[in-house]
Design a protein that fits this description.
By secondary structure, this protein is an all-alpha fold.
Length: 534
């Protein structure tokens, strides 16, 4: 179809295709791997007694990879900036695409601040662990200082400013920064895996624990746990508990994968690169998570991790142990203590490094949604403006503001604002996927468009329709599970009101820009009948 001149904001986006397979892959991995795996692997033993998290990850990898395959096949057909917004608006209906665009964008814009705040807090906790393991009061004091509310706000602000500047100064600076952070994190991960699977002292983990925290420390954990109701029954394998762990397992491993679709207009060798940043990244992440979650049980034992939760919950009864929060970095650092102080440091801060890694890719990709909306003339014109460094400068500034709000709201002094905003993020995230799946099912009906991309078939059925159907079912299942947990919780009524107001507002905003464009002689229907230019 011939596009009527002047309908889009301009003839090209101004963004260039410079993302290769490796950088796209690490964008998806870094945006996904964060604190979750480093704490969920041990917290699940408390939250879901008897659950096997490695098994939960292995089972949920099947639908999760189908979801990421859906996104891969859609990118291969429509590799444009804005990703899922473009898919839904062009294949289902503009209003739904518009709604999904904002619904996907705002949770990321807000959660960036919470991640920045907790990055500093977790970094402080990591230094505290290192201090105890290395018997260094100076490092313990540093960890204690970084774990304060003031440090969280100041340090989080610094992390946010640095991350936004990295994105503002263009793709070259972003790629070098992300490669550097990813490299350090991977090295920390390799050593962590070694201590989870490949190393043990002659006396086993109990002797390592006692050598770090003092004679009798290991037995004290066991005794306090038993005295407060722990029995071996709570660690007996349970299918019911394992299925309850499905939701955090799949969410923690795939929640950010679609983020890569937002940079579809900036990737080279589209079919190959889009595969690596979706399906390839998902496979890597699930293998990573299975190795980690099984490795911590191999190193420590299911029973002791469960007992540790009981003991820490009654910290006042501990006289030898410092009652540090349970996490993979804690247990791996104890294992590393007999080898090298440097490795204790690297393993100890591994979880914090991955959390800090979340921020730059989230910023880089999320700002592409308001940019794409503006390019379609359905948001303020300034939002599609490009700086001399090739970045969407006003979209970046707009994204910085909600991040700062959440950074401040994450402070315990301001109540539960951070919890509510993070809950909205979780609630909204999986509302996107049923519509993405539906868009995939409808794509083959537009044969000329379908045949542009990887038009694979299985028994005559387009692969994208099969994956799309799995995505629809998975999306509704997780919407149900997340809604059940969040809306049925303490802040359920408030979350329901926030969700309803946001959804209504986004549809009203669509109606406003639709009418505004019509009055200016710009036809939104014509815009949405075309794939945006590159």
């Amino acid at each position: 179809m011939n596009q009527k001149k002047g309908q889009f904001a301009r003839e090209s986006t101004g963004l260039t295709r410079e993302f290769g397979a490796f950088d796209s892959f690490i964008l998806a991995v870094c945006a996904t791997v964060g604190l979750g795996i480093h704490t969920l692997s041990v917290m699940a033993i408390k939250s879901y007694p008897g659950a096997s998290l490695p098994l939960a990850y292995a089972i949920m990898a099947i639908p999760a990879i189908a979801v990421t395959a859906t996104v891969w096949l859609l990118i291969g057909t429509m590799p444009r900036t804005g990703g899922i917004y473009v898919f839904v608006s062009r294949l289902i209906h503009p209003s739904l695409g518009y709604w999904i665009g904002w619904l996907y964008y705002f949770p990321y814009a807000f959660v960036i601040g919470a991640i920045a705040y907790y990055s500093v807090y977790i970094l402080g906790s990591s230094f505290t662990v290192m201090g105890y393991v290395l018997d260094s009061q100076a490092i313990i004091s540093l960890g204690t200082t970084l774990s304060t509310d003031e440090a969280g706000i100041l340090g989080g602000f610094i992390l946010m400013v640095l991350s936004f500047l990295v994105v503002y100064f263009g793709l070259g600076v972003y790629k070098q920064t992300q490669r550097f952070l990813y490299g350090i994190s991977i090295v920390a991960t390799i050593f962590t895996i070694f201590f989870l699977w490949g190393y043990s002292s002659p006396g086993g983990f109990s002797s390592m624990w006692n050598s770090v925290f003092g004679a009798g420390a290991y037995q004290e954990i066991v005794d306090v746990a038993v005295a407060n109701g722990w029995t071996s029954n709570v660690t007996t394998f349970s299918w019911d508990a394992t299925t309850q762990a499905f939701t955090p397992a799949i969410f923690g491993a795939t929640s950010m994968i679609a983020l890569g679709s937002l940079i579809g207009g900036e990737i080279k060798s589209v079919k190959k690169t889009s595969f690596y940043m979706t399906v390839g990244a998902a496979i890597f992440i699930f293998v990573f998570y299975i190795i980690y979650s099984a490795g911590i049980i191999n190193l420590v034992s299911y029973d002791f991790i469960s007992q540790y939760h009981y003991a820490v919950a009654h910290a006042g009864e501990l006289s030898i142990n410092p009652a540090l929060g349970p996490s993979i970095p804690l247990f791996a650092a104890v294992s590393a203590a007999g080898v090298s102080p440097i490795l204790v440091g690297l393993v100890g801060i591994g979880g914090a490094l991955w959390l800090i890694n979340d921020i730059p890719p989230m910023v880089y990709a999320s700002v592409r949604i308001p940019f794409a909306l503006s390019f379609d003339r359905m948001a303020p014109d300034k939002l599609n403006a490009i700086s001399r460094f090739g970045s969407p400068k006003w979209a970046l500034l707009m994204t910085f503001v909600p991040g700062i709000i959440t950074l401040l709201a994450s402070s315990p002094k301001l109540g539960v604002g951070g919890i509510i905003i993070s809950s909205v993020y979780v609630l909204f995230e999986w509302m996107v996927y049923p519509l993405v799946g539906m868009a995939a099912i409808l794509l083959p009906l537009k044969k000329d468009l379908f045949e542009r991309g990887p038009a694979f078939r299985v028994a005559g059925i387009p692969l994208i329709q099969i994956c799309g159907a799995v995505t629809v079912v998975s999306g509704f299942f997780l919407m149900y599970k997340n809604g059940q947990t969040l809306l049925g919780g303490t802040y359920g009524d408030l979350l329901g009101i926030i969700g309803t107001v946001c959804i209504g507002f986004f549809f009203l905003l669509y109606a406003y820009y639709y009418a505004k464009n019509k009055n200016k002689g710009i036809d939104p229907e014509l815009i949405y009948s075309e794939i945006p230019p590159e």
